[in-house]
Specification:
With 329 residues, the chain is mostly beta strands. 4% of the residues lie in helices and 49% in strands. The strands form five sheets. The chain has a five-stranded antiparallel sheet with strand order 1-2-22-21-20. The chain binds 1-O-phosphono-alpha-D-mannopyranose (M1P).
Length: 329
């Protein structure tokens, strides 16, 4: 495998990007993007958001032996919007997968006529999916579950936002004893203000990743310019035992639109990951992301270097979280 290596960057784009495009599908697909990712039965399995020419999206399975090449796409294996359900009338989007004791929990955005909301489904084989319904009312999206409970409760990261709100769209954390009833909600990461890269609107990327230093988060921040919005990625770290505690939040974005497939497409200047997979070496992470709301891509990074970056580039101002103090020598 060879990569386009830039030693200044934390993430290295796979040189074969995009790995999945609309043309991979045999029917009239407009775009394939924003995939969830999981290791399943010895393969890398992506749940890809596939938008057809109606404008509505479904979630379709794609598999590969090495996670980079020879993707088999199955348009009819996944979650198609159930148009009889109010919450899915305008499609299903942007899934995140979390493994639980005996299956996989999929949190995804349902696009309802009342606005986007958060839905939950469960599967064991990625062939049949048991819908568990709406778990956060509109407007809410960019949600993922932690892969373990805390004191017997599930924790959900999500991004509520009122349409037209001047108060910003922030990342929240909510709790549930049973995946049905949610509460004790609080802001986890506030969007910054003004000229910051993550001002006004942010949202979680892949589900939280447990490291020896805490839960690593990757989130997108949106900068609105006169030419449109730019979606870039930043990092934060939460306490292992109490994920309401933000240990660190990077000041700088660490991955942003750069290549032609990220800068040009249906929505230009967007990188939008919904899944990442930690390799067997325990350090290399493969981040799967949508580029320009058009194609699926992958980039790799060292988790150790991501944590190290957080320790060396701590929050200075603009958000109320303390400095990390475990910089590596
Ligand atoms: O077009 C960019 C992204 O816009 C939305 O994300 P968010 O509400 O977090 O800004 C989503 O529609 C997402 O799918 C899309 O990639």
């Amino acid at each position: 495998m060879t990569y386009e290596v830039d030693p200044r960057e934390l993430f290295t784009r796979y040189e074969g990007n995009p790995i999945i495009e609309a043309s991979a599908f045999h029917s009239m697909v407009n775009a394939a993007f924003n995939p969830a990712a999981v290791s399943f039965e010895g393969q890398t399995l992506l749940l890809v958001r596939v938008e057809d020419r109606t404008g509505l999206s479904r979630l379709a399975v794609a598999t590969s032996d090495d996670g980079f090449t020879d993707w088999e796409v199955e348009l009819n294996r996944g979650i198609a919007p159930d148009l009889d359900r109010f919450e899915e009338q305008w499609g299903v989007e942007d899934p995140r997968i979390t493994r639980d004791d005996d299956g996989y929990l999929i949190v995804y955005t349902g696009y309802s006529p009342g606005g986007p909301l958060v839905c939950l489904a469960r599967t064991t084989d990625f062939r049949t999916f048991e819908r568990r319904g709406v778990i956060q009312a509109p407007e809410d999206k960019d949600a993922a579950l932690f892969p373990r409970k805390f004191g017997g409760r599930w924790a959900l990261i999500h991004r509520p936002a009122a349409r037209g709100s001047e108060h910003g769209a922030h990342i929240w954390l909510s709790w549930s004893p049973d995946l049905r009833h949610w509460g004790d909600s609080q802001i986890l990461l506030p969007a910054r203000r003004g000229a910051w890269w993550d001002a006004d609107k942010i949202g979680l990327g892949p589900p939280p990743l447990l490291t020896e230093h805490g839960w690593l988060l990757c989130y997108h921040g949106v900068r609105v310019t006169v030419s449109g919005s730019i979606y870039r990625l930043g990092l934060a770290l939460l306490d292992r035992e109490d994920p309401t505690v933000v240990i660190a939040r990077g000041n700088e974005w660490i991955f942003g639109p750069k290549t032609i497939y990220e800068r040009s497409g249906d929505v230009p200047d967007v990188v939008f990951p919904c899944g990442w997979i930690l390799d067997d070496d325990g350090d290399t992470i493969r981040m799967y992301y949508g580029a320009a709301d058009s194609v699926v891509c992958v980039a790799t990074a060292s988790v150790r270097q991501l944590i190290d970056h957080l320790s060396r580039h701590p929050t200075l101002q603009g958000s109320e979280v303390p400095r990390l103090d475990f910089a590596q020598e």
